[in-house]
Structure formats: structure tokens, C-alpha cells
Amino acid sequence: MISKKCKYALKALTFMAKNKDRSTPIFSSEIASKEGIPKKFLEAILRELRNVQILQSRRGKNGGYRFNKPPNEIYLTEVMRVIDGPIALLPCVSLNYYAPCEACEENVCSIKGVFETVRNETLSILGNTSIQSLVN
Amino acid sequence: MISKKCKYALKALTFMAKNKDRSTPIFSSEIASKEGIPKKFLEAILRELRNVQILQSRRGKNGGYRFNKPPNEIYLTEVMRVIDGPIALLPCVSLNYYAPCEACEENVCSIKGVFETVRNETLSILGNTSIQSLVN
DNA sequence: AATAAATCCTATAAACTTTATAGGAATTAG
DNA sequence: CTAATTCCTATAAAGTTTATAGGATTTATT
Q: What's the CATH code, domain A4-67?
């Protein structure tokens, strides 16, 4: 399961993609009310997305958020990794968040293989789906 | 991520499949020590697997656990659903644990589609992989 | 009948994660 | 100077995970 936070992030980005031709930045307050996301929680999410250069922000009056790269170049894998961490179902099979399984000798690990397959299939779907494509 | 509990369940079942030709049932204590699983925690797991007819058990001296159906007919989906619940990444996309997303009108949900695709791919892998196949 | 050895069951708890909320600081436009 | 926005830190409530404790129950054997 992805977290609610991650769902909020995807919803927020999709909302922004839907409105990407506006001349002004988008307020967190607008996204929060239109998408039903708690405002302060959403602020934290948007800040994380800005920290990894998915978004850019402007403070002060008439501030708000914009994409830092076109939404058809932002893939779900990137967003999900930022918000939720690993996509793989086992730590020892994660590409971006690898961690060894403690008491498990990996060379002979019985369950590793199938979860590598799942990871590959999942990444090939989520890594080829852009935020923009969710709008269309 | 699957839980440690689920990993323990898969490891335990794999261990049992590896030893499926024994004439006597297998003790939880043996599995616990050989696989490095906390004994009491493992007992709870094995009981759950017995409750759903994956295993059968005998109490008392010379008791222990056996498969209730051949391990080549036990698929990872079944085990994972018993222990961890839904396999899908979104509640509204789960086949066995469906739950509606609260403030999300599903007909127009932007993110639902891609997670259905992920679910289908994941199920086709995990649903065709048996416990027995992990041994081979 | 007594004993040993196994599963079964319930309650509890420590640690961690998730999902926020509160209160303001900093910045910017007008 | 004011209003409106993002930014930041601390806190907390609730839920989940990962066990542990202590025995109850069952069964085979002696």
C-alpha cells in the first residue's frame, strides 16, 4: 500500500498538471480545498517535492508552486520514492533503498528472486507513467 | 514493503516445503531456530496459516505442523493476503480488500488506472509462484 | 496417573510509523 | 505597512508492527 501522504502528493501534482497553463503559481490552499487534503500536511508534502526539484516555489504575496520540470517528465517512481521510500517489496531487492536482510544469507535466499521480478514489472509501469499522463 | 511477519511466514513455509517428505510433523521450535524467527511470534504466524487451511497442526507430544495441501498449490498471493492483507497499492483497487477512497470520486480518479495495472502484473507473478517453486 | 512436549490462546507492551496540528518565522507584492 | 503566501520546528494522537509473558490445553509415553 502507498501511504495517504503519497496519494496526496500524486493528487496534488495531478491537479497542478491539469492547471499547468496558468500564468500564476498555484497556492497550496487551493490544492488543499479542491483535493480535500489537510492544508498543513499538504504544505509539508509540497516542500518535500520542492526540495528534490520536482517543484519550485515562491514565497510571499502572489507566491505559490510551479513545476520545476514539465509534468510529462515526472514519473510516478520519482514521486513515490521521495514520499514513501522504496518501491520494492523487500529491502534487499530495492534499487534505491537497498538494505540487507539481517539473518538471511542472500545468495541462497529463497524468496528474493520472485520479488525482484515483481520489482522489475512494477518499476516498468510506474517508471513509464508520468504525472501528465494521469491527466489525459 | 511486505512486513517482517510476512517474510517469516514465507520463510517458514519454504522451510517446510524443503522438508515435506518427513514422516513426522515439523515443530515450530525447529523452524524458529533454523530460520532465525522469534519462537512465540512464529507460533502466532503458523496458527494463522492453519486457521486458513494452509497448514494443519497436531498438539501434544510429537505434535507439530504439516501442509494441509501440497506446497505446489500454495501461491504467494494467498500467504501474503492472510498475513499482510491487500496486495494492491491502493485500497480502491484491491480485489480482496476493497475499500473506497473517501473524498475521491472513483469514476474520475486520476491515479486509479495505473495502480490497477500494477496490481494485475503483481498478481500475475505472485499468483503463479508457489511455495514449492521457491525451493527448486 | 503422572510427566514431558508440543500447540493454542489472551493480554500486554515497546518501538516505530503515519497523519496530522499548532504556532509562528520569513518572504514578497502592493 | 499590511496582507498573503511559503517555510520551519515541535508536538501529539492514533495506528501498526514486532514482539514477549504466562499460562491453558492437548497428546504420547511411561
A: 1.10.10.10
Q: Is A108 within 8 Å of chain B by CB?
A: no
HSE-up (13 A, CA, CB side) for residue B68 = 13
Instruction: Evaluate if residue A88 carries a pLDDT over 60.
Output: yes
Residue A109 is given by DSSP the state -
Q: Does A123 contact B at CB distance below 8 Å?
A: no
Residues in chain B closer than 8 A to A125 (CB atoms):
114, 117-118, 121
Separation in Å, CA A10 to CA A6, A65, A97, A99, B89: 6, 15, 21, 26, 13
Q: What is the mean pLDDT of residues A31-36?
A: 96
Residues 33-92 of A with CB under 7 A from strand D: 40, 43-44, 46-47, 50, 57-65
User: In 3D, which of A74, A78, A97 has the Cα closest to residue A86?
Assistant: A97
| Per-residue pLDDT, B100 | 85
Q: How confident is the model at residue A102 (pLDDT cuts 50, 70, 90)?
A: low
Distance of C1' in C15 from CA in B41, Å? 16
List the grid coordinates of B41: 511470534
CA of B40 to C1' of C19 (A): 31
- pTM for the model stands at 0.94
What are the tens digits of pLDDT across the range B109-121? 889 999 999 999 9
Q: Which residues of chain B have pLDDT under 70?
A: 102-107
Whether B89 sits inside 8 A of A2 (CB atoms) is: yes
> Domain map of chain B by residue range?
4-67, 73-135
